[in-house]
Amino acid sequence: MTDRLLVLLRHGQSEWNLKNLFTGWRDVDLTPQGVAEARAAGQRLKARGIQFDVAFTSVLKRAQRTLDLTLAEMGQQNIPVLKDQALNERDYGDLVGLNKDDARKKWGDDQVHKWRRSYDVAPPAGESLKDTVARTLPYYVQEILPRVLRGERTLVAAHGNSLRALIMVLEKLSPESIVKRELATGVPIVYRLASDATVAEKFELI
Question: Which end of the chain has fewer CB within 10 Å, C or N?
């Protein structure tokens, strides 16, 4: 039986996660805690006997470093890794670099909540989650999913919003449901797909 395995992994805690800043496409690194989370993800995957044939990540270092650390813990540093900005975090536009509390003081709780949590309201000069889905989904359909369906065990190390875009499709979630979905940093979400690309099994390695 083909092992149609797809694992999604949000990067470990970043320097700007720690500072409560809007990060978006700004290329910040992991904190020591983020490094530990990435290593722990690799340890959990290895303990479950999971191995990979290929990995995908964004062009941002916090995702790439998470992937590198995870694969190192698994002894799998030599698998092919494909990097593409289609998997980048959502672009927060004019909010990038701002403290989330300061943004609330400037624009109000309701407006910032809409920018952060609505499906189709974008911050100034930035992307909505809907925009992120429009960027990420074609890449998933064209590049990632065919490999999974061929039986290539696939790891995707990316970001909270680009991964939520994939989860929306995998789990057939509505726009209302996906905006409430939170992804913990450094926690692998394991999917096994049926031959029609639907989810046959799902669990998280916490």
Answer: N
